[in-house]
Amino acid sequence: MAGKKGKTKQKDSDKRVAEIAEQLEHAFLAGLGALSNAQQAGAKTFDSLVKQGEDFRKKTTKKTESLIDDVQEAIRDMSDDAQSKATGLLGQVRDKSQLKKLYGVFDKRVADAMDRMNVPSKNDIDAINRKLNKIIKLLDDKPKATKPRATPKPKTAKSTAKKTARKTAKKAVRKTTPKAA
Hints:
It contains 4 helices and no strands. By secondary structure, it is mainly α. The radius of gyration is 65 Å and the shape is elongated.
């Protein structure tokens, strides 16, 4: 009986191996089926994602273009406003009648202050320069009168003799007087 049990055990184990092999084959085939489904679904999902990306890009492009247009419009408005303000300010600065009045008042006050300090004005100095130029021109235009030069008096023998006598007398006095010790 021992021999029957061994054969039964072997048949049971072969049967089990066959069942396990069959289950493994089914699991493998199921995995391949899942992979096939995943590939099909993946392709569909991929196409769906591409369409979503295109739609998203279109929406963001429109929003971006709208924002850019708004920013450009705001910049134009600010530029126009700044130009109008600058034009107004330049108009005020360039108003020559008011500037001339301001210059006139300033010049008058400075001239009054200079007059109180007895400082000659530019007009005074110009008048003096004109007078000096006339005088110089008159002096240059007159022919120079030649005055006879005074000639030195000729030295006479008498004056030369007197000078020599004085010098020798001084030398003699120096030699005869004792030096102070």
